[in-house]
Amino acid sequence: MKAVFRLFYYISILLTCVLAGVTFIGCLAGYISPYECMFASFVALFLPTLLLLNMGAVLYWAIRWRFWVFLPLLAVVANWGFLTRVIQLSNTASDLYVQTDSTASANYTQLVVATYNVDRFGSDHVARSCKEIASYMKTQEVDVMCFQEFGGNNDFTVDSIRTTLSEWTYSYIPIGSPNKDPLLQLAIFSRYPIRAQQLVTYPDSKNCSLWCDIDINGQVVRLFNNHLQTTAVSHNRRELEREFKIESGQGICRALSTLISGLRDNFKKRSVQANYLRHMVDVSPHPTLVCGDLNSLPSSYTYRQIIGTKLLDGFQTCGKGYMHTYRYLKRLLRIDYIFHTADFIGLEYFSPELEHSDHKPVLMRMKI
C-alpha cells in the first residue's frame, strides 16, 4: 500500500510539472503565429481550462503542504496578463472622469457603442428578437450598433429590420459579390452620419470586416466591424453531443478529428485576417474603434496582433468583474470585443445577459 501511495505521489508531481509547463506556454502564445507553432495556438485556446486546473493543483499541494505548490502558482502568475483581460476588480474610469474640470468635460461628446453577433436573430419569423434587441439598445442610449451574422428571412426581411431599427437613422449593410458564396453579413446602425464606408473580404472565407467613417458632432471616427474566421464551435459541439448520445466511439473519434482539423485551419485563416486588420488600423487617420466577434481569446495571436501598440482593450480601461461573451462551453470564452485608441475616454464596459444568440452583446460608454 505504501508503494501505491508513493507511485501516486510521483505521478502527481509529473502531472503538475507537465500541466505547469504547458500553461507557461500560454503567456507567450499571443506572440507566436499559428504558422510558426500550432501547438501554442491550441494552448491559447484552452488556457482558461489550464489555469483552472493549475488552481486545483495549487489547492492540492497547499493542502499537502509541499513545495510543489509553487510550480502551478508560478504558471498562474505568468499568465497574469491574460487574467487581467477577463477579470477586473474595479472600474475607476467613471470616478476619474467625474473629478475632471467641468469646463473641459463640456468639450467631450458621450458615445455608446455596442457590438453583437445576433446569429441572424435566431431566424425569428415574428421579429421578436430584433424588436427586443432594439428596445434594449434604446434603453441603454446606444449610438452605434455593430452586428455580426446579420440577416433576415422571407418573413422578416432586411427592410423590416431597418424599420425596426429606424431610430438609428444611418446604416451600412454591405453585400458580397453576386458571383461568390454569400458572406456572413455585417451591419452598422448609427445615430450619427456615415461619411464613408468599405467592405473588406478575405480569401477562402465567408467572414469579413468593414469600416465606416462616422461624423460625431464634427469629429470623424473610423469604426471597424469584424467577424473573423468562424470556429464552428456550435456545430461541432452539437455533433459531439449527438455522437455521445448514441454512444458511437467511431463517430466520436471522427467528430473530434474534424473539430481539430477545422480549428487548425481556422487558426491560420484568422492570423492572416488579423494581420490585415492590424495594417488597416495602423494607417487609420482618425480616432479608431475596433468592434466585433474575433472568434479568439485574449490569449491568442489574433488578439495580440490586432491590439498592437495603437489600441486599448475597452474592458481593461473601464470594465469590471468577470467578462465572457460566448454563452456556452461553461461561459469560459471571451471572443467579442470593443478596442479603442487613446482618443477615447472609457467610462463603462459590460456584456448583458441577453438570450437572443449564442453570443452576448458588448457595450461600451465612452467620451471623445
Automatic annotation (TrEMBL):
GO cellular component: membrane
Record keywords, A-Z: Endonuclease, Hydrolase, Membrane, Nuclease, Transmembrane, Transmembrane helix
Domain Endonuclease/exonuclease/phosphatase: 114-359
Keyword Transmembrane among UniProt keywords: yes
Entry-linked CDD domains: EEP-2
Gene Ontology molecular function: endonuclease activity; exonuclease activity
Transmembrane segments annotated in the record for this chain: 7-32, 38-60, 67-87
InterPro entries: Endo/exonu/phosph_ase_sf, Endo/exonuclease/phosphatase, GPI-anchor_lipid_remodeler
GO biological process: GPI anchor biosynthetic process
Any matching Pfam family: Exo_endo_phos
The protein's name in its UniProt record: Endonuclease/exonuclease/phosphatase family metal-dependent hydrolase
Organism field: Bacteroides reticulotermitis
